[in-house]
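Hi D.,

Good news: the full-assembly prediction came through. Inputs first.
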Amino acid sequence: MAVVEQTAAARPAFAAARRRLPLAWLGVAPFLAFAGLFLLWPAADVLVGAFRTDAGGLTFKHVGDLFQAQYLRAYRTSVELSLLTAALGVVLGGVFAYASVREGTPRVVRAVVTAFSGVAANFGGIPLAFAFIATLGTVGVVTGWLRDVGIDLYAHGFTLFGFWGLAITYLYFQVPLMLLVVAPALDGLRREWREAAESLGAPGWRYWAHVGLPVLAPSFLGAFLLLFGNAFSAYATAYALAGGSVNLVPILIGSVLSGNVLSDPHLGQALAFGMVVVMAATTLLYALINRRVSRWTR
Amino acid sequence: MRRPALFPALTLIGAAAFFLIPLGATLEFSLRTAGGHGFGAYGDLLKQHQFWSTLGLSLRLAGESIAAVLVLLVPTAYWVHLRAPRLRPLVAFLCVLPFVVPPIVLIVGLLGIFRGAPGWWLGSPQFLVPGYVVLSLPYAWFSLDAGLRSIDVRTLSEAAHSLGAGSLRTLSLVILPGLRAAVLAASLLTLAIVLGEFTMASLALFNTFPVFVAYVGQTQATGAAALTIVSIGMLWAAMLALALATRARGGKARA
Amino acid sequence: MAGVVLSGLRREFGSFVALEGLDVALAPGELVSFLGPSGCGKTTALRLVAGFDRPTTGRIEIDGADMTRVPAAKRGVGMVFQAYSLFPTMTAARNVEFGLRVRGVARGQRARRALELLELVGLDHAAGRYPHQLSGGMQQRVALARALAIEPRVLLLDEPLSALDAKVRVQLRDEIRRIQSRLGITTIYVTHDQEEALSISDRVAVMRAGRIEQIGPPAAIYGEPETPFVAEFIGTINRLEARVVDAGRGAVRAGEQTLELPAARGRQAGEAILVLVRPETVRLGASTNGHDVVAAGEIESATFLGATTRVRMRTPLGPLTADVPSGTPSLGPGAAVSASFPADAARVLPL
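Then the structure:
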């Protein structure tokens, strides 16, 4: 009697499990449809378009064109700018985040900093460019202050509308983004670790070197990737500050699309494809380094 | 033991300077008028019809985008957390993709694909909404996912079901209130994105607020500065609303 | 090994006084427990000795040297925290090696020493595991090994077993005691669990509200509590309010009954006192011996605790609890019963 009951009970459960699997997909179907239509399809269209001729055949010409000097330079500058601002963002943002969330800092400071970072991280594009023009532009406020003290920035060759000016401007949203991303990880640093390290004779920097930073490494690495991608794809700010003077890939794509200088859509797609390749390579590198650096979590 | 707080204090002061000075400079710039300082630039701005029409358009688009994002993501995120945890990595991957695939690539793609779309759609600004939604996906997912993880979705849902509530009721009466902060954060981030998104709108030739800002920037410096202050002001107001709204809700129970 | 002397140790947080002037001296090799409820200041005191905090006033001496102003990293104390103190990015072996590495000990040597210590705590087979791969009990053993690696002069343990399962707790506390007495390290052990304190300490300091109420060997703390708080905090105790009737004979009136207690002799007539009797000294059934206090009572409840059964009774003396071996018949609620305890087993304290 009992055996029969058991198998009878098992059958519906098993059937339910088989039913459940496709049912699970049902719930995410709308999302998948949306993502497929507006994310995957456009992305695929661009990536495939990079290899198509106007007639509809396949070609490597467009991608091959990317290896011309001015395009390679654009990629190089974009990557350099992104690496620079990502690295600076991680370091400065990390220190800033630590100063805001550590035990000794009043709670209100942390709240204000977090709220401000929320705004600043999204404060990009044109308004940010204007803000920095007002600050470090030729008639900017800080430029004026420095001139009053005897330092003439522009005479020394500095310009806001160049690589370094752009880098400084990017930091305005990179650093807050770093703070927002990394604050939870910093919260996860247990007070016991610091005290244990101290009682074992390792104060201050030794604690950071042997314990603190290794624990933070995975999050910092992820943040670096995020900041890199963020800078690499930034368009509006670069356009507003350095539209003609700094050779960056997004700007190049923009001018292709708006038909300013060149109007070959396939070139635009090839450039975009190149960007995706860079991002994919970076993500791959991240994944490899992350495996090593997160060994202790597995 | 009070650790010497000198270094962190200096850091905070330095950071404050770096972040506040440009804002102050912009403010000062925006107040420059022919005869010294005044609110002239703001006045001119508010008098421009274009200011209001583009702002209105962007706010409307923002509202539509926020609604779209929430309607799309909240049930999906809930479903994934509750019934299909194995699909979570897939959904997360798709939501993070707009980060890895640079927005400009997406825009190129969207513009390319929909060149053959019906005229009424291409011509109306609503064309931008799906693009905005895609751009907001990473941020919205991040907020909602974190929010769902912090409330024990499974237990709450099971409790609600055992008391007789259906799935829709459970979602709206039990889960959503707990997700208030996450939903607000996702909405705020979407708002920020729409108000700041220049690339797509300009390339698709729509006159949204950021496009207007760029246009003003090319012609009047003080007007641009004033616009910047206005933009920041709006973001700040939204941030404040978010902070107040999340504080008003009860915090974690004190043990 | 070093002795530890705390003199007048006081710690104020604004207007809140966490420690009111602690005076205690530990002999070299001694294990003293600081026992008390939450908020009594025991952890505060420990952290002062460790150097994570500075006292408002007072002195801390280790081995005769004044350590009050010395930073934690230079005090040579080993500390075991309640939980989560292992460095997550290092294996157990690397964790144990850490103190040695900081002191510049060569790699081979410190690896050997780490292995030795892990053997001491029975974990040499887990040397290559990361903290999240270890159970709570194992983590604490590694933490102990790590603290011992630097050959500290004083060992400090802050409720090291509170976060562990009951069975693991009992096992581990015996091991800690075994290792401690073998190495002869002066140790301060903070806990709120009195069974722990009683079972492993040379002396127990019972603390309340920032002060030590009583310090002494476990047996003295248990059998001769000097204040009502200590009596009630340690184990269970019967607490009868009474008044001295005849100081010469030691007669006191508790409830509706008069009894003669040797401990009450010499007190003031009319004094209000507390009569304290441990439940295990109370027996059920008729008592023939003339030295016992006898009370006729009615059973309120009998709770089975395993080896013993706790019987609560209403008697003319007041409520009385007896811990009797389980299996004694006729223990139902409402049953009439006779309870007795030796008169000299009762302690008397002023109320």
